[in-house]
Specification:
The protein is an alpha/beta fold. The chain has 2 domains: 223 residues, Rossmann fold, CATH 3.40.50; 36 residues, no CATH class. It has a 7-stranded mixed beta sheet with strand order 3-2-1-7-8-10-9. It has a 3-stranded mixed beta sheet with strand order 4-6-5. Helix 2 packs antiparallel against helix 10. The radius of gyration is 28 Å and the shape is elongated. 31% of the residues are buried.
């Protein structure tokens, strides 16, 4: 059985790290993916878009010493203005779209996508942001905005029509999680219309019955696809006749440098994945502890003893208000009774 392909390894293969100058991390949350990109592409400017204030604050702190990672407190969609934003129990499920009724069948535990409140957030498009920031090309466009991925791509029509985005790494859904979301086939059809092609699908999550729920996909521009195919042709021998060549005594210096660079990038990728896994475990642990404390507090507040204590406090305030002579006598009697027991 072959091991699943790694989406970041493939991105390193598809784009030349030294040529990656601009990365958009749309739906950055607290910077999990931005940290991976900053490690793999240390010369690239990463625009990390996150509209949720709590997550944005953590994102800013995380990269406060890195001027190449630029947190942007904006939602990305197909319009410019304001949008309702649904804040859910687990912040990674926050979205500009409400949860679908059917989501309880697919999300485990189901309360992770439970909406706690809504807020209003500023929203813009990829094309509009690029015009204002003077950005002509994007080498990597990562999108993970919980059902709103197609709307973000619709807001990048100008860049897509000029193939000014080399590689798109986006979440794709196969089942209904959010109301009004786009499914994988809709995203693929939209990008195919601009000449982009699917490279592969990664990180697929399955239901217990075996049905695919969601995953990630890489789409590449026509130029990047043609470049990859051309490189493959050049790597193939000119003739189908096998020619036995003498084994080289030593690896050429250029190949040694290339192999060393690949090994270094693979080591960075492994380190970034380990760091990301550690952070995700920490967040999950904190979320579990918080939920446990909430359950304890709810149990205490609903207990007979707690209700009796509150009733006693209210009676005491009515009969012997704070600061009164009666309160002084009352508290003295309680202390005396306490010493006797």
């Amino acid at each position: 059985m072959t091991s699943p392909k790694d989406s970041f390894c493939d991105q390193l293969t598809l784009v030349t790290p030294a040529e990656v100058r601009t990365i958009f991390d749309i739906g950055a949350n607290i910077g999990q993916t931005s940290a991976v990109y900053a490690n793999l592409f240390p010369e690239a400017v990463i625009y990390a878009f996150e509209p949720f204030p709590d997550a944005f604050e953590q994102l800013g702190r995380k990269f406060s010493g890195n001027s190449l990672v630029r947190p942007i407190q904006l939602a990305i969609s197909n319009k410019v203005g304001k949008s309702i934003f649904y804040v859910n129990r687990n912040s990674v499920t926050n979205s500009c779209l409400p949860s679908a009724t059917e989501s309880r069948y697919w999300v485990t535990p189901a309360n992770e996508i439970e909406n706690l409140r809504t807020i209003e957030v500023p929203v813009t498009t990829v094309d509009e942001f690029c015009r204002q920031a003077g950005i002509s090309t994007i080498q990597i466009l990562k999108i993970d905005i919980q059902g709103g991925d197609l709307m973000a791509l619709q807001g990048a029509k100008e860049k897509l029509s000029h193939a000014a985005i080399s590689l798109i790494y986006t979440e794709v859904d196969f089942v209904p999680i959010y109301e009004g979301q786009a499914f994988f086939h809709e995203i693929a059809a939209f990008l195919f219309g601009y000449g982009y092609s699917l490279f592969d699908i990664y990180n697929v999550h399955y239901h217990e019955n075996g049905q695919a729920k969601w995953g990630d996909a890489i789409f590449i521009s026509p130029q990047l696809r043609d470049s990859q195919l051309q490189n493959r042709r050049e790597d193939q021998p000119a003739s189908s006749v096998a020619v036995v060549q003498p084994e080289p005594l030593a690896e050429p210096a250029a190949e040694q440098h290339s192999s060393s660079a690949i090994r270094e990038l693979e080591a960075k990728l492994a380190s970034a994945r380990d760091t990301l896994a550690d952070r995700e475990q920490e967040v999950a642990s904190l979320r579990d502890k918080f939920t446990h404390l909430e359950d304890i507090l709810a149990a205490v507040q609903n207990s007979v003893g707690w209700r009796a204590l509150n009733a006693w406090r209210r009676t005491r305030e009515r009969l012997a208000p704070e600061g009164s002579f009666r309160r002084t006598i009352y508290d003295s009697l309680l202390r005396c009774l306490g010493h006797r027991t």
